[in-house]
Design goal:
By secondary structure, this protein is α/β, with parallel strands linked by helices. The chain has a single domain, classed as Rossmann fold (3-Layer(aba) Sandwich), CATH 3.40.50.1820. 42% of the residues lie in helices and 17% in strands. It has 13 helices and eight strands. Strand 7, helix 11 and strand 8 form a beta-alpha-beta unit. The mean pLDDT is 96.
Length: 285
Amino acid sequence: MLANVNGTTIAYDVTGQGYPVLLLHGYPQTRRMWRKVTPALAKRFTVVAMDLRGCGESAKPPEESGYDKRTMAEDALALMRHLGHERFLVIGHDRGARAARRLAADHPEALAGAALLDIMPLEWVFNQGRDGYARRYWHWYFMLQHDTAEAMLHAAPREYVLSFFRRSRQPLDPADVEHYVEAFTRPGVIEATLADYRTAYEVDRPRWEAEVRAGKRITTPLCVLWGGNGNLADAPVLEAWRAVAADVRGEAVAESAHYLPEEQPEATVRHIMRFADEVGAPPSP
């Protein structure tokens, strides 16, 4: 389905019936990444899974300035309002989790809680140019290189996308991986990818740093989950999030690297259900 919201077109699916939950996918993926957890969640929730702007079947605005996480968060909020949901849970993975964090900071009145899957605060990562973090997040810096990044991604999009999925602890479904490769090569996606990461550095990073310096903390309850065998296995995850948010819980998910909903779907569902109970999201009637 398609909705015209916040000045763009957002593709989404709705399944189940109950308290509303919004799913925001990661990179380089689409809303398909939730397909292993959606059936279980739909037994309790109305599950809305959307493609972020620039991804999948959603529109790909050409203006680079339109890909900051506040704009993406407003897309998500506008979609849920369009569907009649005034208050909901948001579950975000990777880039989707960065939009979910922004939504949690800007609109605590709209959220019962936000689950952030396998991310650290963006500004924290950009400050870790040592101890291997520059190597772990090499693509963040690569995509800041104008013209060079465009040329290389267009020259070898398949190899680029596959390089991410080779890092999973549990192999992803080959059909899903082929879908992500195909989706990445659609017109406008590479440009949107670069805009996303460039605005993260140029817009989102200084915005978060200014808010942290001003003592502004996220008040929306957060559940932070990360792969026990991924990039964040040795990171001070809860400590970093508690420095920027008032209500944080979470833990590592065993036998998973970055792609928690696909590598460990049952564990991901258990954590989401428990978090929903903790923040008072009602069970289905």
